Amino acid sequence: MSQDTKEKxxxxxxxxxxxxxxxxxxxxxIAEKAGISRTMLHYYYRTKTALFQEVAQNSLxxxxxxxxxxxxxxxxLRVLIEQMVDILCDVLEEKPGIPSFIVNILNESPEMLTGLxxxxxxxxxxxxxxxxxxxxxxxxxxxxxxxxxxxxxIYGLCAIPYLTAPLIQFKTGRxxxxxIGFLKERRTMIKAFVWNGIRGNQx
Length: 203
Prior knowledge:
Elements (H helix, E strand, L loop, with lengths): L2 H22 L2 H8 L3 H7 L3 H23 L6 H18 L3 H11 L1 H5 L2 H5 L2 H14 L9 H17 L1 H8 L3 H24 L4
C-alpha cells in the first residue's frame, strides 16, 4: 500500500466529507480529487464508511491528542484553559470545515462519532475536574462547574464562529483576510470570558 496514495485519498476524502457529510459524499468525487481511479480507491478502502471513519479519526483526534498532552505539562488551570483555546482554534483555523462535519455526523449517524476510539478514551473532562477542584481549594475560582461543563463552554465559544463564519462574513461584508483577523481576535476574548466566568466575583 503506497503511503503517498493513501495520503492523497485522505486529503481528498476530508474535503468531500467535510463539505457533504457521509451520505452526501460520492466515492467517485473522492477518487477524482485524489487523482486515482474508483477501483484503486476501493482497493485502499473497501467501503465509504471505513474511509469516513479514518477521516473522522484524523480530523477530530488531532485536537484530542494535543489537548491530552497539555495536562502532562503541569500548568495551572488558567494557563491550561488558554492553551486549550489556542489549540482548538489552531485546529479550526487549519480545518474550518470540522464544526459542520461534526454536525453532519450527529444528524446522520451519531453512533459513528461515539464509536470512535479517541472519543471513548479522551478523559479530558475528568482531568479538568481535578484541576477545578484544586483551583477551588486555592480560592482561585468560585464557580461550581464540572470539567464537562467547562469543556463544552470552550468548545462552543471556539467552534460556533467557524460554523457560522459564512453567514457572519456575508452579513458584515468582511474580506477573507478580515474574517481571519476577526476569528484570531476572538481568542483573547474567549480566554478572558471563560476565566472570568469561573473565577466569579473576587476582590
